[in-house]
């Protein structure tokens, strides 16, 4: 199984860069499945139905989300209807959408679980309280299990990686938009990285115009965020797995 996971898509620059370079990525990695975090795809905050459908039609197989999932209300029905998009499973069950999905590939089924951290983020249930049942459910449906851990704290991500080592194929951190250099296959066969990074404007502060963020920090006054322009940094990881266990994980960061 060959898995391509793309870091948080930020605004129109990130969307266009990913869609434009997916053919190149397919040629380079020959993935069986492409998963992307769409948490910031709509102007940096959430995702809309139209954007989600365009990304899925453009070659992404599964979209994961995060703490901005409720920012664009029009996507709520799509979260309910589509099994190609997941939101954090530790939101209440009554909320729109699902936190686990299974997709067929030529190499077998792939289960994708979306979780959110609770340190410095607002989410009612700890991922550690629900992930055992999710992994059990996923394991009954698919040999390959990929977990997107959308979290602020590095400690929470690292802890979840060790907690799930040997039980899932990969635990991939998202949310902070800064790619980390700690990718590795843990001792029992789970691929891990603390943060996959961001697919968004290179000359920015995690996607937002630099001058706006500098004004915020230097004046401590509220500002209106705007997506930066210019070259895009396309971050992601490529995982090779067999029998549900990772053999390798390779990170990449292309300026496009």
| Helical content (DSSP H or I, runs of 4+) | 25-40%
Listing every helix as H and every strand as E from the N terminus to the C terminus, the arrangement reads EEHEHEHEEEHEHEEEEHEE
The SS-based structural class is alpha/beta
Stated plainly, the CATH topology is called Purple Acid Phosphatase, chain A, domain 2
User: How many strand segments?
Assistant: 14
Percentage of residues in DSSP E strands: 25-35%
Q: Note the gap between the termini.
A: 27 Å
What is this entry, summarized?
The protein is built from six helices and 14 strands. It has one domain (2-255): Purple Acid Phosphatase, chain A, domain 2 (4-Layer Sandwich), CATH 3.60.21.10. The chain is α/β, with parallel strands linked by helices and 256 residues long.
Protein architecture, described:
- With 256 residues, the protein is α/β, with parallel strands linked by helices.
- It contains 6 helices and 14 strands.
- The chain has helices spanning 11-29, 49-57, 76-81, 127-139, 154-164, 210-219; strands spanning 2-6, 8-9, 33-37, 62-64, 85-86, 100-103, 110-116, 144-150, 170-174, 184-185, 191-193, 198-201, 232-242, 245-255.
- Strands 1, 2, 3, 4, 5, 12, 13 and 14 form an 8-stranded mixed beta sheet that branches. A 6-stranded mixed beta sheet has the order 6-7-8-9-11-10, covered by helices on one side.
What is the topological layout?
Blueprint: E1 2-6, E2 8-9, H1 11-29, E3 33-37, H2 49-57, E4 62-64, H3 76-81, E5 85-86, E6 100-103, E7 110-116, H4 127-139, E8 144-150, H5 154-164, E9 170-174, E10 184-185, E11 191-193, E12 198-201, H6 210-219, E13 232-242, E14 245-255
Parallel strand pairs: 1-3, 2-12, 3-4, 4-5, 7-8, 8-9, 9-11
Antiparallel strand pairs: 1-13, 6-7, 10-11, 12-13, 13-14
